[in-house]
Design brief:
By secondary structure, this protein is an all-alpha fold. The longest helix has 23 residues. Helix 1 runs antiparallel to helix 2 and helix 2 runs antiparallel to helix 4. One of its GO terms (molecular function) is geranylgeranyl diphosphate synthase activity.
Length: 287
């Protein structure tokens, strides 16, 4: 599965399934166990979908069994020994905090889709299709975390969705040089057609004016989406608001790096490091 900058409520770096945060120093201690349980659930699903040398058919079978285990847990069943370390803590967190199982199911559906789409060398027709994938691969993260913080008003959820989808898109445009050779195509058919770029051009060892413009336009789309969700930081009190400020600025900083490459992220992966932290902190304070 694709990785991304940390999603809302964690500024701490994550080394594996970055759509879920690991409980950071800013996270209230009482929420660290459920967040860790959710992270373990998503990380294990990510491993099933993306790690090792299993065939697509085996990955899909494992994800189906994992999904069945999720629903068995929700029905009060005893965890299968294979994933007891995941579903034991998750069952406790779900019971204690009333975590919506449907959101976790959405995450698994996105993992399944990613395996299937890649195996079939399929593509996304347009941005609406890609956003539907983000709705299940990224947006549940923000909603689950807001649930833990007791935030459930419609405006906050909408803005959280915008931030999470933006983070997923930012990851796509950051990882073009990694994903494309592996047969993962997130640049949509409609966007390629609009800029007159053939999909075969994306694998060439050089870029063109059109392919660079395509990438820059997609980055601008992600930035616009992130900015539309950013006011959420003012609606969330205390620690969660400060964590979200850093998350937003981390995503925007990656877009700065994509912009600086002027479309050449097709050939090289832009990264954010410790040297970028002072700027991110300053911008977070400025928010």
């Amino acid at each position: 599965m694709p990785t991304s900058p940390p999603a809302p409520t964690s500024a701490a770096p994550v080394t594996h399934y970055e759509n879920f945060p690991v409980a950071s120093i800013l996270c209230p201690p009482a929420l660290r166990p459920p967040i860790a349980a959710l992270y373990g659930f998503a990380r294990t699903a990510d491993d099933l979908a993306d790690e090792g040398d299993a065939s697509p058919a085996q990955r899909l079978a494992d994800l189906a069994a994992y999904r069945q285990e999720l629903h068995a847990m929700a029905a009060g069943g005893t965890p299968d020994p294979r994933w007891a370390a995941v579903f034991g803590p998750l069952r406790h967190a779900t019971a204690q905090h009333g975590l919506p199982v449907a959101l976790m199911d959405d995450l698994l559906s996105a993992f399944v889709q990613d395996v299937d789409v890649t195996a079939r060398a399929a593509t996304y027709a347009d941005r609406d299709q890609l956003l539907d994938y983000c709705r299940r691969s990224a947006n549940p993260v923000g909603r689950l975390l807001l649930h833990l913080y007791g935030v459930d008003d419609a405006r906050s959820l909408q803005q959280s969705d915008a931030i999470c989808s933006a983070l997923q898109l930012i990851n796509f445009w950051q990882d073009l040089s990694v994903d494309l050779p592996r047969g993962r195509h997130y640049l949509t058919d409609a966007d390629l057609a609009r800029w007159g770029v053939a999909r075969t051009e994306l694998l060439q060892p050089h870029t063109t004016a059109a392919s660079r413009a395509l990438v820059m336009d997609c980055a601008a789309w992600a930035r616009q989406l992130m900015v539309s969700g950013a006011p959420l930081v003012h609606r969330l009190p205390g620690r969660i608001g400060w964590e979200l400020r850093l998350v937003v600025q981390g995503g925007l900083r990656i877009l700065d790096k994509v912009d600086a490459l002027q479309g050449d992220s097709l050939l090289q992966r832009p990264t954010v490091g410790k040297a970028d932290l002072p700027r991110m902190l300053w911008r977070a304070l400025a928010m």
